[in-house]
Write a structure and sequence with these properties.
Layout: H1 3-35, H2 63-70, H3 80-108, E1 120-125, E2 128-133, H4 136-150, H5 152-155, H6 159-179, H7 189-192, H8 201-253, H9 262-266
Antiparallel strand pairs: 1-2
């Protein structure tokens, strides 16, 4: 046998030995894992967050398609009578989207850069969630007014500025409600423009009544104290007068016995 063949056979045998040792080591590791399963490293997978179910009432009608349908546009695959029946259920979605946009503007007034509000927003409903879409020009107007309300106005309150902001918000909201043919019974300015820590009108009037009551009570206490002092003075004067009258009556009631002459006693 030539040297070349001997070298080939030697290398093959060496490889077989190495492979055999490797397989023995793997078998031993598997046997240990089988005998001690507690020491085995479990494979951990991050559970995916469950996606909230879509609102079945608006199934297939979301986003801009929903807005277009509420604006009276024909949406393929949806009966106009069905759209009309969904209109009352759309009002809470519209209200939630507008309110959230206004709150974003108030929150961003603390220092976040002015941004364009997203036209799409996921709104939670009693049956799950729905993707809402509103025109960006309307949302931008609401956001800018809310940002001014939470920023410049909060630092320097001005009744004229507040009146302007309220009128703007109510006008924009009324326009949106008219476009979707839904009546807006309560102006948004009645519940949106409430700064944190600012008392309600009822609370303010209650505080005023309480302050007035306190002042009135103090006045009544003072007046009552003065009247009591005057009454005590009158009682004291009356008692003094009674003592004087009693002393006078005592002196007057003493019987007068004139002196008897000596001659009269003898007789």
């Amino acid at each position: 046998m030539s040297n070349f063949m001997m070298n080939v056979v030697a290398w093959v045998l060496l490889l077989l030995v190495i492979l055999t040792l490797y397989l023995i080591d793997k078998v031993n590791q598997l046997a240990k894992l089988y005998e001690n399963p507690a020491h085995a490293q479990p494979v951990t997978e991050t559970p995916a967050e469950p996606t909230p179910p879509s609102d079945i009432l608006f199934s297939g009608l979301e986003g801009k398609k929903l807005w277009d349908a509420m604006n009276g546009k024909q949406v393929e695959g949806f009966d106009p009578n069905l759209i009309e029946a969904l209109r009352p259920h759309y009002e809470p979605i519209l209200r939630a989207h507008i309110t959230a946009t206004f709150q974003d503007g108030v929150d961003d007034a603390a220092g976040i850069e002015n941004r364009v509000p997203n036209s799409e927003r996921q709104i939670s409903t009693a049956r799950g969630h729905i993707q809402s879409w509103l025109p960006p020009q309307h949302l931008g107007s609401i956001y800018r007014n809310a940002r001014e309300y939470g920023g410049d106005y909060a630092k320097n309150p001005d009744p004229d500025v507040l009146s302007r902001l309220k009128q703007t918000i109510d006008s924009v909201v009324d326009m949106m409600y008219q476009r979707v043919n839904i009546p807006n019974d309560t102006p948004y300015s009645q519940f949106l423009f409430k700064r944190p820590g600012q008392p309600d009108e009822a609370d303010a009037s209650g505080d005023a009544v309480l302050a007035l009551t306190d002042q009135t009570g103090q006045a009544e206490v003072l007046e009552g104290g003065n009247a009591l002092n005057q009454g005590l003075e009158h009682v004291q004067a009356y008692e003094d007068q009674q003592r004087q009258d009693l002393a006078t009556d005592t002196v007057t009631d003493v019987p007068f016995n004139p002196p008897v002459a000596a001659d009269a006693k003898t007789a």
